[in-house]
Amino acid sequence: MKTDTPSSLNTKNRHRVRVGRSSAGLGLFASDSFKKGERIVEYTGKRLTNEQVKRVVENRYLLEINDRYTINGSSRENIARYANHACKPNAIAETVRGRAFLIAKKAIRPDEEIVWDYGKEYFNDFIKDGGCRCTTCVAKRKTAPGGAVKPV
């Protein structure tokens, strides 16, 4: 099964988001306002079974949608892949009938980066050792007593 066909939501909202530089590399930014609860973009890509996922060599763009399927969102056509991790996110990932969406957790203003919590497993596997680069954690490290870098 494939879900990497263009999403009607992504086509509709393409002008409402943009990819730009962020503290963690490239990020997804709002070009328009989003209301709390509004769908921002769909996380698209090839749908993989659990067996197929086991054969995938390191891939940071896998999003588990249920106990049987995972979306491989590594294609650059998947604009949702640019939404970075944050410890205090403004969006959440939600699955609906086998599809995954990023949804505004609160009102999002134009030029605000769209960020969501990738979850504990992803954090431990990919982020923890290098240190979280979300704005909250970067600010915490900058304000550590004595100017020392404070571990996250």
Fold and architecture overview:
- The chain is α+β, with helices and mostly antiparallel strands and 152 residues long.
- It has one domain: Beta Complex (Beta-clip-like).
- Helices cover 18% and strands 30% of the residues.
- It is built from four helices and ten strands.
- It has helices spanning 8-13, 50-55, 120-127, 135-142, and strands at residues 17-22, 25-30, 39-43, 46-49, 62-64, 69-72, 84-85, 91-96, 99-104, 113-116.
- The strands form three sheets. Strands 1-2-10-7 form a four-stranded mixed beta sheet, with no helix packed on it. A three-stranded antiparallel beta sheet has the order 3-9-8. Strands 4-6-5 form a three-stranded antiparallel beta sheet.
- The longest helix has 8 residues, at 120-127.
- It starts with 7 loop residues before the first helix and ends in a 10-residue tail after the last helix.
- Mean pLDDT is 83; it is low at 1-5 and 148-152.
CATH third-level topology: Beta-clip-like
What's the order of the H and E elements? HEEEEHEEEEEEHH
- Summarize the amount of helix as a percent range: 10-25%
* Helical stretch tally: 4
Major beta-sheet overview: 4 strands, mixed
Instruction: Write down the CATH class.
Output: Mainly Beta
Give me some keywords for this one.
152 residues, alpha+beta, Beta-clip-like, three-stranded antiparallel beta sheet, 10 strands
Brief write-up:
With 152 residues, the protein is of the alpha+beta class. It has helices at 8-13, 50-55, 120-127, 135-142; strands at 17-22, 25-30, 39-43, 46-49, 62-64, 69-72, 84-85, 91-96, 99-104, 113-116. It contains four helices and ten strands.
